[in-house]
Amino acid sequence: MAKFNKMQVMQAMKETGMVPVFFNSDLDTCKNVIKACYEGGVRVFEFTNRGDFAHEIFGELVKWATKECPELILGAGTVIDAPTAALYIQLGANFIVGPNFNPEIAPVCNRRLVPYSPGCGSVSEISNAQAAGCDVTKVFPAGNVGGPSFVKNILGPLRWSNVMVTGAVSPDKDNLTEWIKSGVLCVGMGSKLFPKEVIAARNWQAITDKCAEALGYIKEARS
């Protein structure tokens, strides 16, 4: 069962403005990355369903995070079908994210009041997802469908929208400022936040510092 309700999830996404996206098959690595992000100010984290037995790792992370990162809202990403969404919700996912919009996932999440953020690449997809009860829609791949200008343009006719963007987001000042100024609710960030060499070197402090830096740029852009 989700530890945080839908309103808490959305509020945390809005307040911090950034959702790290990560997967590793090693449980200890995942714990260290999550802890590093948490110490850097992150409060919403997306664990992606991208490897064998990923759900088993996620279940262990949920139990661990309850003690070690009590304010962390942990969700599952790369969820493309309803059975997988149900599995992760049962394991304690506080939100579900997908690269695409699958209308069969929405009622599974809605029944438990768990936010479902599907990947959308057009005004029609965003509108259809909202009609299905998706309060936060993810523009993906954000860099390919038009970048910050796409977000600005869709917020004209769909000005009530809560948009998360993933893809072509990096933790540098200019990039984050452009996305925030476009009107996004938050940004999702993966490989740019977790370079392979940093993970290989187990340089967790570098991740903490980079998260704190990125969150600072987001706060500055909003002001």
Describe the 3D structure.
It is a single chain. Helices cover 48% and strands 15% of the residues. The strands form 2 sheets. It has a 7-stranded parallel β-sheet, with helices on both faces. It contains 10 helices and 9 strands. With 223 residues, it is α/β, with parallel strands linked by helices. It is globular, with a radius of gyration of 16 Å. The relative contact order is 0.16. Helix 2 crosses helix 3. Pfam families: Aldolase. Keywords: Carbohydrate metabolism, Lyase.
Largest sheet: 7 strands, parallel
Q: What's the quaternary structure here?
A: single chain
Radius of gyration: 16 Å
Q: Which descriptor suits the 3D outline?
A: globular
Helix content: 40-55%
Overall number of strands: 9
CATH topology type: TIM Barrel
User: How many domains is the backbone divided into?
Assistant: 1
Name given to the CATH homologous superfamily = Aldolase class I
Mean pLDDT across the residues is 97
Q: If helices are DSSP runs of H or I spanning 4 or more residues, what is the number of helices?
A: 10
Strands ordered across the widest β-sheet: 3-2-1-9-8-7-6
- Strand composition percent: 15-25%
- Structural class label: alpha/beta
Spans of at least 5 consecutive residues with low confidence = none
CATH architecture tag: Alpha-Beta Barrel
SSE layout:
Blueprint: H1 6-16, E1 18-22, H2 27-39, E2 44-48, H3 54-68, E3 73-77, H4 82-90, E4 96-97, H5 105-111, E5 116-117, E6 119-120, H6 123-131, E7 136-139, H7 147-154, E8 162-166, H8 173-182, E9 186-189, H9 196-200, H10 204-222
Parallel strand pairs: 1-2, 1-9, 2-3, 4-5, 6-7, 7-8, 8-9
Protein name: KDPG and KHG aldolase
InterPro entries: Aldlse_KDPG_KHG, Aldolase_TIM
Family: Belongs to the KHG/KDPG aldolase family.
